[in-house]
Every structure is written in C-alpha cells, then in structure tokens.
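Apologies for my clumsy wording, but could you write out the amino acids of a protein and the tokens describing how it folds?
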Amino acid sequence: MRKKKELREKISETNRVRRIAVAGLIAGLTLTVLGLMLFTPLFIIGFTVFIICTGTASFLTSLKWGYSKALKIEIEDETVSLPARLCPRCGTKVRKKVKYCPKCGKEIQTKKH
C-alpha cells in the first residue's frame, strides 16, 4: 500500500516536471524561429534550449512509463490471490509459488506428487 502511494507521488512529480520541460520545448522552438528571422545568437540560445528540453522530456517520459509499469505490477500483485502458506521457521504467510521466505530466508518445502 505504501509503495503504491510512493509510486503515485513519483508519477505526479514526474508529470509536473515533464510539463515544465514541454513548456521549455515550446519556448526553445519559438526562440529558434525568431533567431532565424531576427538575431543569430537568439537562434543558438533557442536551439540549445530546445535540445536540452527534448532530452529532458524524453527521459521523464520513459521514467513515468517505468513508474506506471511498476504501479501496474504492484496493483496486479495485490489482486492475484494465490493461496498462502506458512513458513515453517517463522510462521510468515508466503505465496504458493515462493521458494524462500521473504522474512527469514528459509526454503519453503514444496510437496511433489
């Protein structure tokens, strides 16, 4: 539950910064066009801003995709209801397909028929 909240906060923060990067893209493109028509140093500044913001927006988009995928996996893990077993050493509930206890590390014996 806590992890889902943290992932949602990361997605929200990434979206906020990504919007700033997109605004920078628009500003850089505008400065580039104005620099072509009016003043050459303005073109260089605008093009530099455009390139930096393009890379930033791309990076943040891939970061958001990663967070979103992790959140989706976290939600799916909660909805999958695998039968639980108890660890023989510490008594922690573990899922059926888990080979080792996540708390104490003891190997969980599986019955083979």
Strands lie at 84-86, 93-95.
